[in-house]
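Recall the central idea of this unit: under ordinary conditions, the amino acid sequence of a chain determines the structure it adopts. In this exercise we apply that idea directly, starting from the sequence alone.
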Amino acid sequence: MNRIILLVLLTLLPFSLNAESKLNAILSSGELKVGTTGDWNPMTIKDPSTNEYKGFDIDVVTELAKDMGVTLKLVPTDWKTLVSGITSDKYDLSTSASLSAKRALATGYTDSYFTYSTLPLINKKNSSKFKDWDDFNKKKIKVAVTLGTVQEKMAKEFFPNATIISVEAPARDYQEVLSGRADVHITSNIEASTLIKTYDQLIIVPVSTGKKPTPLAWLVKQDDQVWINYVNHWIALKKASGFFDNLMTKYGLENL
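Accordingly, the structure predicted from this sequence is:
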């Protein structure tokens, strides 16, 4: 069945398969290399005790490798080097990342299969202080973000009067809020829903609306249209089969 899926997708490609395409290289080597940060729950999480990865995105790329009939190799990366890992051929694609005009200057994107919005999280003990977005755009307010993320750029846009604290992986922005070193951090509604279940001290601020609806997609080599087309066709087939809907339910994301 997996080989049948692969053959069907190959017939849809408008370009001839050639030695310069990632697709041909992956099939020849028998290995699909995927860059992943392992710090975005529930999309990609690395267990430090076993060094194994799990999550929504990990399930997706595992399925992709299976359908291609190749072995999956997960390559550790972080947000600030996510793009350079693609351009330097360190990996064939990344797990999901926010669509960004800046990233798109250097790398390509696949079609999206999920759209998130951005929400603020605070320590529960400060719930009476913050009710909406404007409450954070003030002097003496400290906003934590993770270096190299789209949220880092968003925070500078949303809160020009606040102090932005950019933390570098493997540290994370929400840890600054938990420790009291920051008043708030912003993240996707995907991660926010998981964090409040994991940490009783954190709550989502009941803002009037989430900001910046942003599609998620995989980063791929910008000039490799053969590889991009193959992955896009694969995503379309998996959407039609209900694969992504089932994963949304598995990870409790169906109502986001």
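The first helix runs from residue 2 to 12.
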